[in-house]
Amino acid sequence: MDQVFEFIVNHAYLAGAFVLLLVLFIRNETQRGGPAVSAQQLVDMVNRENALVLDVRDKKEFANGHIVDSVNIPFSALDSRVDELKKFEDRPLVVACKMGQHAGSAGTLLRKKGFANVSRLTGGIAEWRNQNLPVVKA
Predict the structure, then answer these.
(1) Residue 137 lies in a domain
(2) Could you give the residue numbers annotated as active site?
(3) How far is CA 51 from the centre of its chain?
(4) Mean pLDDT confidence for 63-92
(5) Do residues 78 and 93 make contact, with C-beta atoms less than 8 angstroms apart?
(6) pTM, full prediction
(7) 57: containing domain
(8) 71 vs 56: CA distance, rounded Å
(9) What DSSP string describes 18-60?
(10) What is the count of structural domains for the chain?
(11) pLDDT (tens digit, 9 = 90+) per residue, 98-108?
(12) Tell me: the pLDDT tens digits for 71-80?
């Protein structure tokens, strides 16, 4: 560990550049799929702005419990099925996945396809369930 601090002191510019690039990378990754919304913010968006929840989990996980009135398009098929969402282009769109790992990538894809108002659910459906919010089983 002492060698790490010695390296940082001896190569301050290199260490500074690394920290700067790391911060920029993290900022880019968190913003690329749209802003993150909490479960409570999602409830408000659905009630006040008629937001649509896009669940990108596979059909089996979706059938085991999903947010009321959410649309299921598995992440693996999203690129080929994005046209199914064109009728919802004017509504806010919130992407939800199991734990938040695919929501950013799905949000990026949707933004590239012309959807302007895209957000992602923080913590995914796991966080939704942790807060004891209702799910529907198909």
Answers:
(1) no
(2) 97
(3) 15
(4) 94
(5) no
(6) 0.79
(7) 33-130
(8) 8
(9) HHHHHHHHHHHHHHTT--EE-HHHHHHHHHHH--EEEE-S-HH
(10) 2
(11) 998 888 889 98
(12) 999 999 999 9
